[in-house]
Structure formats: C-alpha cells, structure tokens
Write a structure and sequence with these properties.
The complex is a heterodimer of chains A (about 210) and B (about 300). By secondary structure, chain A is α+β, with helices and mostly antiparallel strands. Chain A contains six helices and ten strands, in the order βαββαββαββααβαββ. At the A-B interface, helix 2 and helix 3 of A face helix 3 of B.
C-alpha cells in the first residue's frame, strides 16, 4: 500500500489533446463547468534581433500542463475548510466528505491549482479523488489510462521522485513551496520555472 | 462588481456592529463621570440597533453557501480554520451582545456585572474583526495576504460603527427634544460624543487616504503576477469604482468637517446636526460598500 500517491506528468509528451480531461469527466459524470483535471496551454515568445544582418527571427514557445488535485503535503484547502469536510486520508488522497461540506467555496478560493470545484446541483464541493474505486479494483486512474501519448502516470511519490526528479514548480503552476504538491513533472525543454514566467495562459476559458 | 454580494453585506454588517459596540464602550469609558442614568438614556437606543444589524449580516452570509442547512458544520474546524473562528466569534458576539442588551434594557443585575459583560462583548467583537481579516489573508492571494487587510477592516469597523452610533445618538436626542424630555446633561453628552466621533472619523478617513497609495505600491512591486493582475482590476477594469470610493471618502471628510464647523457655532449649528450626521454616515457607508465590493472583485489567486 502506498504511503503517498502522486501524479507524474511528462510535459515533453503532452500534445494538449485533453483526453485526460474528458476521461475524468466521463468517469465521474461531472456536469458542464466542473473539471477535476484541466490542461493549461502556456505560451509566449519574442523577436530575436540580429544587429549584424538587420534581421529578426521569431522565438515563440508553447507547452501544455495537465493538472488535477495534487493531494498536497501542505493542503491549503484542508487548512481553510471550516467544516473539516476536506481531509487527507488513505494513501495521502485529499477528499471531500459530501455529507459534511456546507458548500462555502472557501477551499476553491484558497487552492492555487483550482482543484476543489463546486457542484451547483449537489450544493457541495467536489474534487479529484485519485479514482479511489478504480485503484481498489487494481486499475489506473481514468486520466492516466486515457492518455494517448502516455504523458500521465501515477505512483508512490518517493519512487516517482527517485526516478524522475522532484520538479513541480513549472509555469503556469504556482511554486511547489506554497502547498507542497505531490506532483512530479518532466519539464518541456522550453518550460519556465514558476515565478519567472514570460508567457501567459493561452486558454484561460478552458481551465 | 457584484462578486460575493452576501459576503460584502456580512463583512460590512459584522464590522459595523462590532465597531458600534466598541465606540459605545468608549463613550461609557470616557464619560465615566457622567451620571449613570444620563449615560444609559443617551446610549441605550444606539445599543439596540447593533443586534439586528449583526443578525442581518450573519443571515446574509448563509446565502453564499451551497448547503445552508448544514451551516452549523462551519464550526467543526475551530482551532484550524480562520473561517470557523470567524463564525464562532460572530455567534459569540451576537449571543453576548444580546444578553448584555437585555440586562441593560431591564436594568437587571449589578452595574459592575453589566460593565464586565460589555467589555467582554467588545473584546469578542474586536476579535471578530481580526478573524474576518485572517479569513482573507490567504497566502495564495497576494492582494489579501497583507497587513493592509486587518488595518482596513478595523478602520471600516470603527468608522462605520462610530458614524452609525453618532447618527443614532443625534436622532434619539432629537426625539427626546421633541417630546420635551431632554435634559441639559444628556444634550451635553450627545454633543461631546458626536464631536469625538466626528474627529475620530476624520482620522479614520485620513488613514484610508494615506493607505491607498501605499497599498497600490505594495501591489505594484509584489513579485507575484497575481498581485499585478489585482492592481490592474483596481485601477483599470474597476477604475471608476476606485475613483468613486475616493470621492466618497473625501465627501465624508467634508461632511464631518462641516459638522464640527457648525457645532463650533454653539446652538445655531445644532439644528442641522441630525441631517449632517446622517449624510456623513450614508456617504461613508456608500464608500465602504464600494470599497468592499472592490476588495472581492480584485481577488486574484496565484497559480492556475
């Protein structure tokens, strides 16, 4: 049994197809507007000027980041939640107890990954539960299973970090120091470290 | 601009009621030499207005809940969540205030006991204002996670509380006068209290003026992109509202100054006092409501 589950995301493989988003929505039957996993497109660039020849060359970049709840070690949602409905439990998975949640949305205000999402019909917060039922049945989370380029994976955080390093501070995500996310990223070759970004999110309405 | 309207109403009402209670306490404290009977006659009518205001605010706050029937669950994370502390402090302030108002109304129990209860209620009210400020001091929201938030909330509490009490005192005094039951001692106490409130209000509004550029500087030089986005919302997207807030602050200063100016005239100025007190209160209230709407509208969190 894992002590702390984490997602692994290989930014070099992601094509931004959003199959993970749709697989998640389908698996959890999420209504329109509620997304437990999202894919952000981060893009930017400038002109490189060659004074010698008087020419300019474009130097644009764009990369995708698929992210969900990162089941943080320092989960600000759990800290903020006034009802204790938000809790960190088995396998380090952060879950909402729907019978306790009062739907105040304070967790959504606090989380820098927009992980807690309000379900209007249910009147409570909902979020990624790491597909606990699929895990119990020996399956992989729906998003991981759906990824056509095998950019997503999951596992015990210590093992993932030993294998891929401990990077999680990639724009447009916040610095990992804020909530200590259990997320391991293999960065895109043009990826920028959180806080030093020169680009912007290209698809703000999709995330 | 209509972001989180129930929370705008709740935070303003809670801060105004806490501030009113504290200002009434200060009047009692500074007027310790005034006969008890006179003091109660002057200040009690204002006291009874505090409770309904807070209850209105708390009721409004449940409107933003997805499952309001479970609102009591918000107390379960006491000691961990500032939001739980805020709800607890609000309930405790309402409960203690209600007990105090009832004892004061019926003049039950020894005077000292009622005073101890009043000090305790005022302390809980002050803690409530602090707790509200900590709810919004989220480390993921640079525009809120700053000492400006508690300072701003305490200024709002004392400004609105003070001016509400001032207006209530003047209106109650006018009623007594109409009935022909006003005593010279009571009239003098009202005059002193309103002068003090107007002077304090000028300082509060002045602090807002000084704070504004400092806060804009804080946002402009913050390393997080989110802070600059908040600044852009305040200055560009909602710039008209920011300007309106500043104009109302200035109009409030003018109204308070006019009041003090007329009062210096002696009896001649007193006739205008109820109007001036109400106008000053309404102007400052309008400015504070717009300010609080901007507070929520300029919320930008770091990350995605």
């Amino acid at each position: 049994m894992a002590k702390q589950l984490a997602f692994y995301f290989d930014q070099t493989k992601c094509t931004g197809c959003k199959a993970c988003v749709i697989a998640c929505k389908d698996k959890h039957d999420l209504p329109v507007g509620v997304r437990w996993r999202r894919v952000a497109e981060y893009s930017g660039g400038l002109w490189l000027v060659d004074e010698r020849t008087g020419t300019m060359t474009q130097d644009v970049f764009s990369y995708y980041t698929s992210y969900s709840c990162n089941h943080c070690d320092d989960p600000i949602c759990v800290e903020a939640c006034p009802s204790t409905a938000m809790r960190k439990g088995e396998n380090g998975i952060v879950k909402v107890e729907p019978e306790i949640c009062i739907g105040c949305k304070y967790c959504a205000m606090a989380c820098p990954y927009s992980a807690p999402q309000f379900n209007e019909a249910k009147g409570v917060m909902t979020k990624c539960d790491f597909c606990s039922d699929r895990l119990a049945a020996g399956q992989t989370p729906a998003c991981v299973a759906a990824c056509p380029s095998r950019a997503l994976d999951f596992g015990e955080v210590a093992e993932l970090r030993a294998k891929y390093g401990a990077m999680a501070s990639i724009e447009p995500l916040p610095a990992a120091s804020v909530t200590k996310p259990n997320l391991v990223i293999s960065p895109h070759h043009r990826a920028q470290v959180s806080g030093t970004g020169t680009g912007r999110i290209g698809n703000p309405k999709e995330i | 601009m209509l972001h989180e309207l129930p929370l705008v109403i709740f935070t303003i009402a809670a801060q105004m009621s806490a501030g009113s209670f504290i200002v009434l306490g200060l009047i009692h404290l500074l007027g310790a030499k005034v006969p008890q009977e006179t003091m109660d006659r002057v200040t009690d009518p204002a006291l009874y207005a505090v409770g309904p205001l807070l209850v209105l605010g708390m009721a409004a706050s449940t409107l933003h809940l997805g499952s309001p029937l479970r609102a009591a669950n918000s107390l379960l994370h006491l000691g961990g969540s500032w939001l739980s502390a805020e709800i607890f402090a609000g309930s405790a302030f309402a409960g203690l205030g209600a007990v105090f108002a009832f004892l004061q109304w019926k003049k039950l129990g020894p005077h000292v006991l009622r005073q101890v209860l009043a000090v305790l209620t005022a302390a809980v009210g002050a803690f409530l204002v602090f707790a509200i400020s900590q709810v919004y001091s989220l480390r993921t929201v640079p525009a809120w996670a700053t000492y400006f938030t508690p300072v701003r909330f305490f200024i709002t509490a004392l400004l609105l509380g003070g001016l509400a009490v001032g207006a209530a005192l003047v209106i109650a005094a006018q009623r007594r006068e109409a009935k022909g039951v006003e005593t010279p001692e009571a009239a003098a106490l009202v005059g002193r209290s309103v002068r003090g409130i107007a002077l304090g209000g000028l300082f509060g509004l002045g602090a807002k003026y000084i704070g504004q550029p400092a806060y804009i500087g804080y946002l402009g030089t913050h390393p997080e992109q989110a802070a600059r986005e908040s600044l852009d919302l305040l200055v560009n997207t909602y710039g008209v509202y920011s300007a309106a807030q500043n104009i109302l602050t200035f109009a409030g200063i003018a109204a308070l100054f006019f009041m003090l100016y007329r009062m210096a005239d002696g009896n001649a100025g007193k006739r205008l006092m109820p109007t001036a007190a109400i106008v000053a209160f309404v102007l400052v209230l309008a400015g504070e409501v717009i300010g609080r709407m901007l507070f929520y509208a300029s919320m930008v969190r770091i990350g995605v």
